Design the sequence.
């Protein structure tokens, strides 16, 4: 089948649907010459493929379509949001398999959590879902609980709501709510973000003079810790995905 043929589907779309990664990531793999169709390298983004008749390989491994599955997980601290770590540290994919995720799936995270952070994160093999979730038109709120080294003042909270400049980026919160202090425990803030930049909460707090002692994501859009139903990892039903990203499917 030639790249100009109208039959079949675009190669990057097939790879994403097979759980290789987001559409953009799959395009990068194709351009890098890592994808073969019927034994021949295909490096053109316009190429189409018929998965029922042609063999598709990534780095020499056959790629097959697999059913889409998405999990809501409670990532522990000390786990990397990646599929492999050269230093041998625990990864979210390894942890998810231990917690009951199908080990045959090519899972990856939608968004990230720092190595030292914990809480809710989505894992999927649905590249189209991951791409839609990350699209700028989607403003999926994420809420965090931050344990800090001292009480936050009104001016510090106002600064976070207005936006804090840090290393050329404006780090802003949609909402900041101090929680009632408990004797003998560090003060906590509930922080809602409309977008997530690298180490957003930690950098924002540090820029206004507060140190984060612990950070936990407690909500992704409408999904909260209660949706885990007491488990560390649970597969989401189609209705829950529609609630997370309302759209025509």
Sequence:
């Amino acid at each position: 089948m030639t790249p100009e043929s109208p039959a079949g589907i675009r190669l990057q779309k097939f790879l994403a649907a097979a759980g290789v990664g987001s559409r953009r990531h799959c395009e990068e793999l194709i351009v890098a010459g890592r994808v073969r169709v019927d034994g021949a390298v295909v490096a053109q983004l316009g190429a189409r493929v018929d998965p029922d008749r042609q063999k598709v390989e990534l780095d020499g491994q056959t790629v097959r379509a697999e059913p889409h599955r998405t999990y809501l997980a409670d990532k522990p601290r000390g786990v990397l949001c990646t599929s492999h770590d050269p230093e041998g540290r625990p990864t979210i994919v390894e942890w998810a398999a231990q917690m009951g995720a199908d080990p045959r799936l090519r899972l990856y995270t939608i968004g990230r959590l720092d190595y030292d952070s914990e809480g809710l994160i989505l894992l999927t093999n649905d590249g189209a879902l991951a791409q839609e979730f990350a699209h700028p038109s989607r403003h999926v709120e994420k809420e965090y609980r931050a344990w800090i080294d001292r009480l936050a003042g009104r001016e510090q909270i106002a600064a976070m709501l207005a936006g804090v400049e840090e290393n050329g980026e404006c780090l802003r919160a949609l909402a900041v709510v101090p929680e009632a202090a408990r004797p003998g425990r560090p003060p906590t803030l509930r922080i809602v973000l409309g977008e997530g930049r690298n180490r957003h909460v930690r950098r924002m707090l540090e820029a206004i003079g507060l140190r984060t002692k612990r950070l936990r994501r407690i909500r992704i859009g409408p999904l909260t810790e209660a949706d885990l139903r007491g488990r560390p990892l649970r597969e989401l039903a189609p209705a829950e995905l529609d609630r997370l990203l309302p759209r025509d499917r």
